Amino acid sequence: MPSHEQAIASVCVCQSLSDMLQPIHLFRYDPLYKHIYILAGNNEGIEIIIFEQGNWEFYEDDET
Amino acid sequence: MTKPNFTQMTRKELKTYIRQNPTDDEAIRELFVNRRSPNAKKYPYPHSMSKEELDNIFRSKSQN
């Protein structure tokens, strides 16, 4: 299961994506790595990993 | 059904595959873990950020 911090961070990230009218294509918790993966954006160009501690990483894909 | 070779796929192909197979952790890990960018921007647990700060991050991403 995701950690408490991870769960809260997910809500904040998804709400911000939604505020910006960005579609969310994938929302996935990985039980092995304990990451949450989000694939979002009009061109699927927004990749986000949310770590167990609630910190997160934003990867902007130029290739999309 | 044999699985495609994920390591041979472009990012775009991987994303198309993941959208069609959102439970395939192997494909998802190839995109989010194996091809993770060393330059990806990291952010702290959003609880320590204001909503405005968070929105500004996403606003800049959404203009692409």
Mean pLDDT of chain B: 89
Number of helices of chain B: 3
Structural class label of chain A: alpha+beta
What is the average of the pLDDT values of chain A? 92
Overall 3D geometry of chain B?
Answer: elongated
Topology order of chain A in helix (H) and strand (E) letters: HEEEE
Largest sheet of chain A: 4 strands, antiparallel
**Helical coverage of chain B, percent range:** 40-55%
Share of residues in strands of chain B:
under 5%
Helix content of chain A: 25-40%
> Helical segment tally of chain A?
1
Gyration radius from CA atoms of chain B, angstroms = 16 Å
Biggest pleated sheet of chain B: none
Q: Distance N terminus to C terminus of chain B?
A: 37 Å
General description of the model:
The complex is a heterodimer of chains A (64) and B (64). With 64 residues, chain A is an alpha+beta fold. Chain A has one domain (4-60). Chain A contains one helix and four strands; from the N terminus they run αββββ. Chain A has a four-stranded antiparallel beta sheet, with helices on one face. In chain A, a hairpin with a 4-residue loop joins strand 1 and strand 2. Chain B is 50% helix and 5% strand. The mean pLDDT of chain B is 89. The chains are: A alpha+beta (64), B mainly alpha (64). Strand 4 (56-60) of chain A pairs antiparallel with strand 1 of chain B, so a sheet runs across the interface. Chain A: Residues 1-57 form the DUF6888 domain. Chain A: This is DUF6888 domain-containing protein. Chain A: InterPro entries: DUF6888 (IPR054181). Chain B: InterPro entries: DUF6887.
Write the layout of secondary structure elements.
The complex is a heterodimer of chains A (64) and B (64).
Chain A (H helix, E strand, L loop, with lengths): L3 H16 L4 E7 L4 E6 L5 E5 L5 E5 L4
Antiparallel strand pairs in A: 1-2, 2-3, 3-4
Chain B lengths: L10 H10 L4 H10 L6 E3 L7 H12 L2
